[in-house]
Amino acid sequence: MNFDTLFKKILWHLTYGSRLKPTRDWYVLLAVGAVLLLGVVLYNVWVFDKLASGQTLGTQTLTAPSLFNRSSLDAIQKVFADRAAEEAKYLNGTYHFADPSR
C-alpha cells in the first residue's frame, strides 16, 4: 500500500456521505481539544521545571545594567521633599482646608 491510497482511505472516512455523522464530528472535535490541552499542559510543566531549576526563559543578559542613575534618584528625592513640604503647610496651618460638605 502506498501513501496515496492510504491518504485517500483516510480522507474517505472523514468525508460526508449521504448521511451526516455528528458523532464522528464530536469525536474529532474532542480529540483536537484533548491534543491542544495536552500540549498546553506539557508546555506549562516544561516552563515550571525550567524556572524551578533556576534557568531563565529567553536569552540571558551578559552585562549587568547599572543599578541606578544618580540624577534620577535625586529627582525622585526632590519630589518627595516637595510633597513633604506641602504636607507640612497643611499641618502647620498655612493652608486652610474647607470642608465642602458643611
What does this protein structure show overall?
Among the domains are: 23-53; 69-97. With 102 residues, it is mainly alpha-helical. The protein contains 3 helices and no strands. 65% of the residues lie in helices and 0% in strands.
Provide a compact summary of the structure.
The protein is an all-alpha fold. 65% of the residues lie in helices and 0% in strands.
Which terms summarize this structure?
single chain; 102 residues; mainly alpha; 3 helices; 65% helix; 0% strand
Rg is: 34 Å
Q: Work out the number of β strands.
A: 0
State the end-to-end CA separation. 93 Å
Supply the number of helical segments. 3
Overall mean pLDDT = 85
Task: Reconstruct the topology from this structure.
Layout lengths: L2 H12 L7 H31 L17 H23 L10
